[in-house]
């Protein structure tokens, strides 16, 4: 990475990582709800700033909006499960807009099949874990986000896989009241899976957009 880019842009990712790690280890610390809530939102919000500073074109604006809505969702869910879910629902709609505008031209039958599984299986499993039709509706948007990410031309093993990690993290949230009610797994795994997924999505989209711009300029 050029020196100027390192100075101007990578710190947003480094501070984002630091905030996410700090939240993970301080989340049970009595430092005060508002400060912990702000720390929680900072990690993904900084990914949005990274997208604005480093990204190019409409795609960068959309992925930044995805991260900003998600950061608001991270904070909102601390106040109300419904508020947080609504903000994440909006982030998934914006993400689907981005991915549908950047569809992959050629896909195999197995890739299409997995996209269908993500689209239909995500709300189904969400309902099975929660027993809530409202969660199933949210799961439809979540599955739509993951499905369209998988079918987009962004790298599958970064953006597509990041979207799948997001799905798994939400399933663990829903499982707290059912399958894994007495297990420590959700508390240990939800935040790392979610943040790593968002990190992979943001960096994968931004770097792809920059690469495409460089090819156009050649």
UniProtKB/TrEMBL annotation:
<protein>
    <submittedName>
        <fullName>Uncharacterized membrane protein YhhN</fullName>
    </submittedName>
</protein>
<feature type="transmembrane region" description="Helical">
    <location>
        <begin position="83"/>
        <end position="100"/>
    </location>
</feature>
<feature type="transmembrane region" description="Helical">
    <location>
        <begin position="33"/>
        <end position="52"/>
    </location>
</feature>
<dbReference type="Pfam" id="PF07947">
    <property type="entry name" value="YhhN"/>
</dbReference>
<dbReference type="GO" id="GO:0016787">
    <property type="term" value="F:hydrolase activity"/>
</dbReference>
<feature type="transmembrane region" description="Helical">
    <location>
        <begin position="112"/>
        <end position="129"/>
    </location>
</feature>
<keyword id="KW-0472">Membrane</keyword>
<comment type="similarity">
    <text>Belongs to the TMEM86 family.</text>
</comment>
<keyword id="KW-0812">Transmembrane</keyword>
<feature type="transmembrane region" description="Helical">
    <location>
        <begin position="59"/>
        <end position="77"/>
    </location>
</feature>
<keyword id="KW-1133">Transmembrane helix</keyword>
<dbReference type="InterPro" id="IPR012506">
    <property type="entry name" value="TMEM86B-like"/>
</dbReference>
<dbReference type="GO" id="GO:0016020">
    <property type="term" value="C:membrane"/>
</dbReference>
<feature type="transmembrane region" description="Helical">
    <location>
        <begin position="12"/>
        <end position="27"/>
    </location>
</feature>
């Amino acid at each position: 990475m050029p020196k100027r880019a390192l100075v101007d842009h990578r710190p947003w990712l480094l501070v984002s990582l630091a905030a996410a790690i700090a939240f993970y280890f301080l989340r049970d610390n009595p430092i005060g709800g508002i400060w912990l809530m702000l720390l929680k939102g900072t990690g993904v919000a900084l990914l949005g700033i990274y997208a604005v500073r480093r990204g190019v074109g409409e795609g960068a604006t959309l992925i930044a909006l995805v991260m900003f809505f998600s950061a608001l969702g991270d904070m909102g869910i601390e106040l109300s499960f419904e508020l947080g879910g609504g903000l994440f629902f909006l982030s998934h709609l914006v993400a689907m807009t981005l991915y549908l505008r950047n569809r992959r031209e050629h896909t195999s039958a197995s890739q299409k099949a997995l996209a269908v599984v993500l689209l239909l299986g995500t709300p189904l499993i969400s309902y099975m874990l929660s027993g809530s039709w409202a969660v199933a509706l949210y799961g439809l948007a979540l599955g739509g986000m993951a499905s369209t990410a998988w079918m987009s031309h962004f790298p599958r093993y970064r953006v597509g896989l990041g979207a799948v990690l997001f799905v798994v993290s939400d399933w663990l949230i829903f499982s707290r009241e059912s399958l894994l009610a007495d297990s420590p797994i959700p508390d240990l795994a939800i935040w790392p899976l979610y943040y790593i997924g968002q990190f992979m999505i943001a960096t994968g989209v931004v770097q792809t957009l920059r690469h495409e711009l460089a090819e156009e300029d050649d």
